[in-house]
Amino acid sequence: xxxxxxxxxxxxxxxxxxxxxxxxxxxxxxxxxxxxxxxxxxxxxxxxxxxxxxxxxxxxxxxxxxxxxxxxxxxxxxxxxxxxxxxxxxxxxxxxxxxxxxxxxxxxxxxxxxxxxxxxxxxxxxxxxxxxxxxxxxxxxxxxxxxxxxxxxxxxxxxxxxxxxxxxxxxxxxxxxxxxxxxxxxxxxxxxxxxxxxxxxxxxxxxxxxxxxxxxxxxxxxxxxxxxxxxxxxxxxxxxxxxxxxxxxxxxxxxxxxxxxxxxxxxxxxxxxxxxxxxxxxxxxxxxxxxxxxxxxxxxxxxxxxxxxxxxxxxxxxxxxxxxxxxxxxxxxxxxxxxxxxxxxxxxxxxxxxxxxxxxxxxxxxxxxxxxxxxxxxxxxxxxxxx
Amino acid sequence: xxxxxxxxxxxxxxxxxxxxxxxxxxxxxxxxxxxxxxxxxxxxxxxxxxxxxxxxxxxxxxxxxxxxxxxxxxxxxxxxxxxxxxxxxxxxxxxxxxxxxxxxxxxxxxxxxxxxxxxxxxxxxxxxxxxxxxxxxxxxxxxxxxxxxxxxxxxxxxxxxxxxxxxxxxxxxxxxxxxxxxxxxxxxxxxxxxxxxxxxxxxxxxxxxxxxxxxxxxxxxxxxxxxxxxxxxxxxxxxxxxxxxxxxxxxxxxxxxxxxxxxxxxxxxxxxxxxx
Lengths: 387, 276
Hints:
The complex is a heterodimer of chains A (387) and B (276). By secondary structure, chain A is an alpha/beta fold.
């Protein structure tokens, strides 16, 4: 096992903050009771869950009752969409985008096979949707609009305020997958007309297996997981107590470090970006003209292939990811970059670097230095490099 | 992360013979940049001995594509083109200690580049220029290429074909067509089950059964019938009855149907004769 790494793959998952772990530990060994129990030993935990819920609600400007704890982003996304369909059985239309995470995209494809109509909004070269296209797609049959807050591959941020206004005007439910936005940019749902918001703990330094769904007060909700009466009867299953405690702490820390995320982390991302553009050349910045999350850089290195870059980075213990087809089993390159009209040959050489508050300037300098060597090496053996 | 062998990693990290040969007398180019991998192979062939005295490559692709290219050059340098021609994608994959199934197409690309280079040396047409039926439009893969991969690697499923040729790996619309190619190929290989050597009694019984179950019911549809009169070695003597007895196509019925059926089921050497 390798434990030393320059970890630039924080959009995939993040390190659990030490403070989060510290806060969680007693709930494995000392306070292991079930918060649903009648006795004090279990029942006292309910108070801790309440505190965690308040912290999570505060992070996004919601009321604690508007938060339900889930197993993560995918469950939250599924719960929101399926609830919207169940509570409005006469409506059979969903509007989403071509660049969503599979938690939404695969679900919509499945629903399409079951007879629902799905509109997949296109994006332009900078990864943005056309709001007129959104307006025109809405009909009396539209049950829900589901558009991500920020894209996982490019970091591109969508105009959630405008979208929420359009949805409210047309009286259509609006769900946003905010998995990549939480902890990176300020979010205040009380300012917008958002019905559902999905988030995942492990993307902001909480552990894997815990997340939440925001359900706006007054929005009808049908539970996705059915069983006990937990979460006001909206999400059954014994509470993942350590996970919830960790999520609460992570939310508190995310609020504390939000400023740093948008100053220090952004500075390092911009430095990496600028150095690559200036020193490596023949690169294409993907989504660079759109507003982006401060930690994400998606850039294509022309004439070379992404998997080869990643494996050479791996030799220096630098972890990143790629939109290249070769890194997946599918042979098909990134659906996000394809939707943006990036040519296939450029997608094959795309790399996503995603930083976190743990990323240091030394790490970025080292990455730039090694990247120059790696790209030169691969370009030297590529038949497409112009000499 | 792919589960690459040490050998793949080693050749990827330290590729042998990468680069160009300026005075190459054979060049093989396969794949293209938009498909995600491409290989350009340069050979220097001695015109007298037909030996490959040098080989270099330029590759755009993943680790296994680069490793396959590197190994290919090691395998062919010093061989005559006749010897090199016998190298298959499996030789490349084996030399690397195996490739993940999804990456087998990288070894196929190596073999193809070599074949293209040899064709180029001999002045033969490039495969691309020959009329081909394209099955996979995403990766521009022909029926010939798919069939070749099936034959050479004994591929049984659509996924296998995708791993070796990439065909069907993107939009997936051609998957049913690939299945048809696989089915047709294996059906063409199926031989009729070998006939058992029958004893005389078994043979007589089988002839009787065939007449009762396979022949009579069909003759009766048209009001015809027959009676088994005798069996003499391979000679089956019958009497046609009903409408068959004075049918003008009786001779066709006798040879084209009854004899054919009996030969098919019982014994190829049977001869059917009619006794009036």
